[in-house]
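Standup notes, structure subgroup. Blocker cleared on the adenosine-5'-triphosphate input:
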Amino acid sequence: MKVFEKAPAKINLSLDVLSKREDGYHDVEMIMTMVDLADRIEMQELPRDTIIISSQAGYIPLDEKNLAFQAAKLIKDYCGVKKGVYIHLDKKIPVAAGLAGGSSDAAATLRGLNRLWGLGLGTTELQKLGEKLGSDVPFCITGETAIARGRGEILEPIVNPIQCWVILAKPPINVSTAEVYGKLDASKIVSHPSTQRVADAIRYKQFDELCQGLGNVLEEVTLDLYPEVRHLKECMQRLGADGVLMSGSGPTVFGLVSKESKVARIYNGLRGFCKDVYAVRMLT
Ligand code: ATP
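Run returned:
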C-alpha cells in the first residue's frame, strides 16, 4: 500500500510579534496562506517496524532530525502502530527559506499516515499532534488561509485571498529562524503591520489594499543582517510587483502580481541574479 501527499509552501501575508513569553517563544499574530509550490511525499507501508526516509535533495537530514521522520514516529507511537513506513520526499520547496517546507512535510506525513494506516484521526487531533513538532505544523495540516496567534498554533480560518500570481525569490543564503527571533526586541519594534487591515482586504477581495497592507516585523532584523534580502525586495518592487514582502524569517521574498502579462518580466529580471525564482499561483 502506498499513499501520496502534496506539501505546499506557506507565505506570511502579515507577521507581527506582540511580545516575548516566559517560555522563550514569542506571541505572534500572522496571516498565513499557501502557494502552489509543493514537495511531493510518497509513503509506503513496510512490514518491518521501522521508519526509512529518502530524498532527492542532498541537503536535508534523512534521520530522526527530519521533520517527516519525527511526524511518522509521533503518529505511530500515539496510535500504537506496529508497522513501518518508507517515506520519500521529493523536495521542491527551498530549505531554510521561510516557506515552512519542513513543517509542511511534517503535516503531510501526519495526513498521509492517517490514511495509509486507516487511523481515523480528525483534523483537530492531527493539528494537536502537529503542535508538538512545530508552531507552523497545525496550519499546514489544512493549509486554509488563517490568522495564527499564540506561538502560531491558534488558528482562525479566514477566506482565501483573491487569486493572483506569487513570485518567490530566495537569495543563496540560509537564515536561522531562531537567530532572527533571538535578535528581535519585541518591545522596540518600530512599525507593526495591521493584521485587521490585511484580513479585511482579503475578506473584501481588495487586491490593492492587500498589497499595501503587507507587513512583517522580522524584516527589521533580517534585512539588517542580510542586505541582499533588502536588495531583492527593492528589485522586485522596481520590476513592478504589486506588493512585496519577506516571508517568515526570510530570506525568501515574495511579490504579489495581479496581471499575468507582468509575470515573465519580473521572473526574468530576478533570474538575472538569483537562481531560486518561482512564479506560482496562490492556492485557493
Ligand atoms: P520555518 O519558516 O517554519 O522556520 P523554513 O522554511 O525557514 O521553516 P525549513 O525548510 O522547514 O525552514 O528547514 C528548517 C530546518 O529544518 C533546516 O535546517 C532543515 O535541515 C531541517 N529539516 C528537517 N526536516 C526537513 C524537511 N523535511 N524538509 C526541509 N528541511 C527539514
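Discussed briefly. Residues 101-116 form the longest helix (16 residues).
Next: hand off to the docking folks.
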